[in-house]
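> run fold L-arabinose isomerase
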Amino acid sequence: MIDISKKEVWFITGSQDLYGPETLKQVAENSTKIVKALHDSTYIPVKVIFKPTVKSSEEIYETLTAANQEQNCIGIITWMHTFSPAKMWIRGLTALQKPMLHLHTQFNRDIPWDTMDMDFMNLNQSAHGDREFGFMVSRLRKNRKVVVGHWASEPVQKKIGDWTRVAAGWNDWQGAKFARFGDNMRFVAVTDGDKVEAETKFGFSVNTYAVGDLVEVINNIPEAAINKLMTEYESSYNMVDSLLEGGKNRASLVEAARIELGLEKFLEDGGFKGFTNTFEDLHGMAQLPGIAVQRLMQKGYGFAGEGDWKTAALIRAMKVMGSGLEGGNAFMEDYTYHLDPAAPRVLGSHMLEVDPVLATNKPSCEIHPLGIGGKEDPVRLVFNGRAGDSLVAGLMDFGNRFRLLINKTVGEEVLEDLPKLPVARIMWKPLPDFETACTAWILGGGAHHTCYSENVTVEQLEDFAEIANIEALVIDEDTTIRNFKNTIKINEAFYNN
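> ok
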């Protein structure tokens, strides 16, 4: 399972030597109190680490380059308690490689009307000190998150916490490996892309492994491990009779367990954080992995079908962002529509591989024929999704840039039973409305594979795109087609510069 609690963000306070030792001592004390409050906040899932006040170009450079080198440091928070001349920050900011949040706050919440004097004014200069710093970051064209408000307030702490989750997702991509069993589904465009450019831009690598290499691992799984997993299946899911001991399809469940254990061993041994496969390349496998993929996603692996490595990587990042929160993040595909004029909806699914983290009930473990792949009937988990706020997001390669496309949605309970559809079923209403959302998604070149999220926000994904320095397009309750088209045109000009 994913755990980001040991990750760190460094809290770096800016000042200068101008004010003397007493003022600088008070700056350090105040910063320490802020750091303790943020570190103890239930909204912030990582450690917030106090760093000594930086007062010179040399101290700034040493601190920021140290952040680059510290493996557990996923980003920095900067704050100017006093005025900190921003030319001191140029060398350090130029060298900084970690995500940055600029906290525009001040130690005191209220003006101390009866006691405020010039000593107080000299000590508390955040209102203009942060603007000096902000100018330099903008002058250097560095992306960052800006959070404004008093450090002790819940909204500010929640914004910081949300950003630390984004930084953790980005950190998880650095050096990550994704395995591709087989190649891209033949002739499909949007799931393909430039893996060299992706590694350069995002920090993760994607490489292909022969299905035969995986099959060799699968075939060497010991029977004792298979039997143990079978017992886990039976205690975790509602099993159809044919998969129970003595049932006519029991051997298929054995094979499904063997595939799951083999896949997991291959991924663990190779240090992979996600994977893809394709039904067009299953040589040596008895069935297309269904329950195996579903359960591995639930454990935190990124996955997408048909060789779609970009979506697999995005799902992994969003799983990291949402770790420990209610709800889930899962591989998804807009499969069919309910075009009732009064209430059009999207029914999302995939052939087999939807993460049971979205299940509203105890999944049913079933076996059914699959009309593609040419293999034995695969075992899969069948369930319905739940209602609630959600979104779908897709990552596409446009040749000269990557685009992250995001659509706010509202999850809904599946309207009726689907007794003849033996897959996971997730239903949602896209915002602002069905027609506008679908039109904008198509105009934006959106992929048919997405990550469906119940706990990551649009703002977090926009922050993620800022860190990655890629384009983000949002479809939400305020979207109009005219404005969306204009945004696309403006972005084309911007990214062609």
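The CA atoms of residues 186 and 284 lie 20 Å apart.
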